[in-house]
Specification:
The chain is an alpha/beta fold. The strands form 6 sheets. Strands 3-2-1-4-5-6 form a 6-stranded mixed β-sheet, with helices on both faces. The chain has a 5-stranded parallel β-sheet with strand order 17-16-18-15-19, sandwiched between helices. Helix 1 (17-24) packs across helix 4, helix 10 (269-277) crosses helix 11 and helix 14 (380-392) crosses helix 15. Bound molecules: S-adenosyl-L-homocysteine. S-adenosyl-L-homocysteine (SAH) binds next to strand 23 and strand 25.
């Protein structure tokens, strides 16, 4: 299990929300979980505290409970088997007066506790003796260093506490500047090395993130592992997988990165140009660019892989660029409960949001801290180009549509642009479409089941297709006895189309055919009305209305409480038996 970085803050009552939000200011990407019925304005509502906590814990999410420590301990007790595998767990008092790290000592709980305590202006209740004494967390080293033998750490720290001296082999400023009792003749040793070594109880080994693996072609994971082993390098020292941008779509690169649990970083041809002109292979050039070393990289005869070692740990997130992602997401018609968890995750991860201002506003707090690229609703092609160009620079771009992104929306515009302009820079981008609930589905759900049999959707907008085609299509759909969902029925400039559509339909359908008018679904001012086909006029609809016209079989049910349901039976049959 990998410990995730963005924590879950869990609250049981509305009283705790203010403290939660305060500490979330120092916890980027954190999600606020609140007990349903007791809290509002949270990111995720849950009904079972125990199940939710255990699920988050099992997937390695750091947990911050604004509740009594005892509740957290009892809830998670059945899951505590391996301390190296557990994410940080902390209890915070409801009034923010105490921050108590409980679990996850090997995964940075004390650092997290200090960060939260600072935001709340209190002191963290750190109870780990070694940590206080040496002011350095040997068990959770800073980014860029991995402890190779945590199993030996407990005895090692006890020996230190009992007065043993320690000698340092290798360099690491966080150790040499600490208050450890350093002595070149010490009985204990801390070694910092990227080499494979055999640890021992009196020797702690830290592997610094200094090794860059660069790949330019299809390679198999075993050969990369073999190359490392031959060079006697520790896999824990691998800082990242590096590649020229042109190789970004090579799945082997991503597979190798996920095996090592490190990011992929890419270099543009400009960045590698001068190294290539000195005769280095693309893989060698990427390895050198990643580490800044002048030493010759380790390269097997195939020369599609190269390994270089940096003098200090490297932070891959500052080197080159990541692979660009373009997600085209549908947020549903409006309300947050109609947004899929996948879309929510994507919106959280994205660095850039592209879309019509109204749709970006609908995303609410999920848009906080992201770059927004707003535009007019009509500039779809320009917007798709902007999104692709941003993703080509390594950004994680979410193009936001309402409803479903593939139904009269941006996903199609992106693929049109991709097909038509076909820029080579766009080849490296990972493109993903995340579906949403379309207006016709939301409309149907609010009134019963009018789409219960065969149906089709027709946009009445004649901006992108001629009216003659629309006319033909309406007649054919009416003749085929489809239930029809009309999108874009009316706009300020387009008013006559709906009246014409009705007249065509009346040639095939009875005037009392049920028609559902659904306006502002999932948004303030939602209004759903049932009328008859002969009452369908342009004045009853606008740009925010979707219209469902029943088939010859569609029925309405008037219920005793005054409400109306509309449904289309699943079969054509004379007898009423179902
Ligand atoms: N991708 C969207 C459709 C965009 S076209 C989807 O799948 O729903 C725009 C049209 O969709 C509007 O003119 C209207 O007919 C319909 N629409 C979109 N959101 C709506 C909402 N919240 N309520 C009612 N109709 C909506």
């Amino acid at each position: 299990m990998m410990t995730k970085t963005a924590p879950a803050v869990v609250v049981l009552g509305e009283n705790s929300v203010a403290v939660a939000r305060k500490m979330m200011s120092v916890l980027p990407g954190a999600t606020l979980y609140g007990l349903a019925g007791r809290t509002s304005e949270v990111d995720v509502s849950f009904t079972s505290f125990g199940e939710t906590l255990r699920e988050l814990f099992a997937e390695g999410t750091p947990l911050i409970g604004i509740c009594a420590a005892g509740i957290l301990i009892r809830t998670l007790a059945p899951m505590l088997s391996d301390k190296r595998q557990e994410p940080p767990v902390l209890a915070v008092a409801e009034d923010g007066s105490a921050v108590v790290p409980l679990l996850g000592g090997l995964n940075g709980v004390n650092d997290l506790a200090r960060r939260i305590a600072e935001a709340l202006n209190v002191k963290a209740a750190i109870t780990t003796t070694g940590d206080i004494r040496f002011r350095t967390a040997l068990l959770s080293p800073p980014p860029g260093y991995n402890l190779a033998n945590p199993d030996n750490a407990k005895t090692f720290i006890s020996d230190l506490l009992a007065g043993a001296q320690v000698k340092l082999e290798g360099t690491a400023p966080w150790l040499s500047n600490s208050q450890l009792p350093i002595d070149p003749n010490g009985d204990l040793t801390i070694q910092i090395t990227e080499r494979l070594v055999t640890p021992a109880p009196n020797r702690l080994v830290y592997h610094p993130a200094t090794v860059a693996i660069a790949i330019n072609h299809i390679v198999d994971i075993a050969s990369v592992q073999q190359l490392l082993a031959d060079a006697k390098l520790a896999p824990a020292s691998v800082a990242g997988i590096f590649a020229p941008l042109t190789a970004a779509t090579n799945p082997a690169i991503h597979a190798v990165a996920s095996t090592f649990g490190v990011p992929v970083r890419l270099f543009t041809s400009n960045q590698l140009e001068s190294l290539l002109s000195q005769g280095y292979s693309p893989a060698q050039a990427a390895a050198i660019a990643a580490t800044g070393t002048s030493a010759q990289p380790i390269t097997p005869s195939s020369s599609q892989i190269a390994i270089a070692i940096a003098p200090k740990p490297i932070n891959p997130s500052t080197i080159g660029q990541p692979r660009g992602h373009l997600a085209i997401v549908g947020t549903g018609p409006g309300a947050s409960q109609w947004m899929s968890p996948e879309v929510r995750e994507i919106l959280k991860s994205a660095t850039d949001l592209v879309g019509y201002k109204t749709y970006l506003d609908l995303v609410g707090s999920l848009a906080d801290g992201k770059r927004r690229h707003e535009s007019d609703n009509r500039e779809e092609i320009a917007r798709a180009k902007v999104a692709l160009d941003l993703a080509a620079q390594g950004r994680y771009v979410a193009v936001v549509s309402s409803g479903d992104p593939g139904i009269y929306a941006m996903a199609t515009a992106v693929f049109e642009v991709l097909d038509y302009y076909n820029k080579p820079e766009w080849d490296s981008i990972d493109i993903h479409v995340a579906p949403g609930i379309s207006a016709m589905q939301a409309a149907a759900a609010t009134i019963g089941a009018p789409l219960g049999h065969d149906f089709c959707a027709i946009s009445l907008s004649d901006i992108l297709k001629p009216w003659s085609i629309i006319e033909q299509r309406i007649a054919a759909a009416a003749q085929a006895d489809f239930v029809i969902a009309f999108y874009n029925p009316v706009s300020k400039e387009r008013t006559w189309q709906l009246a014409q559509a009705r007249d065509i339909l009346l040639r095939y359908r009875s005037p009392d055919t049920p028609v559902v008018l659904a306006r502002n679904l999932g948004r303030p001012g939602q209004a759903v009305k049932v009328i008859t086909l002969e009452e369908l006029m342009p004045a009853v609809a606008d740009m925010r209305t979707v219209i469902l016209v029943g088939s010859t079989q569609t029925r309405t049910i008037q219920r005793s409480n005054g409400s109306i349901s509309v449904y289309t039976p699943r079969r054509y049959t004379e007898d009423k038996e179902i």
